[in-house]
Specification:
79 residues, 0% strand, single chain, extended, mainly alpha
């Protein structure tokens, strides 16, 4: 049975989520190379999607992120 001294609750709500919490904890307390590993894993997942689903998996993420690019250009233009 765990005592109250050994159990420390998470400080943020994102730490409680199964996937994002593990990533957030590793980013905060883990290996210094974790951001590189995360980017490589995302690129490999995207490449796997392209192999599995073909061309739509290649261009749909770019279409989905076009509003982000537009907001970035607006933010740069506003100074």
């Amino acid at each position: 049975m765990a005592s109250a001294e050994t159990f420390t609750p998470s400080s943020t709500s994102s730490d409680r989520l199964p996937i994002f919490g593990a990533i957030a904890r590793e980013w905060a307390d883990g290996d210094a190379n974790f951001p590189l590993y995360l980017v490589l894993a995302l690129i490999l997942a995207w490449a796997g999607a392209v192999v599995l689903w073909g061309l739509p998996a290649l261009y749909l993420p770019a279409v989905a992120l076009s509003p982000v690019a537009l907001l970035t250009l607006i933010a740069i233009g506003r100074g």
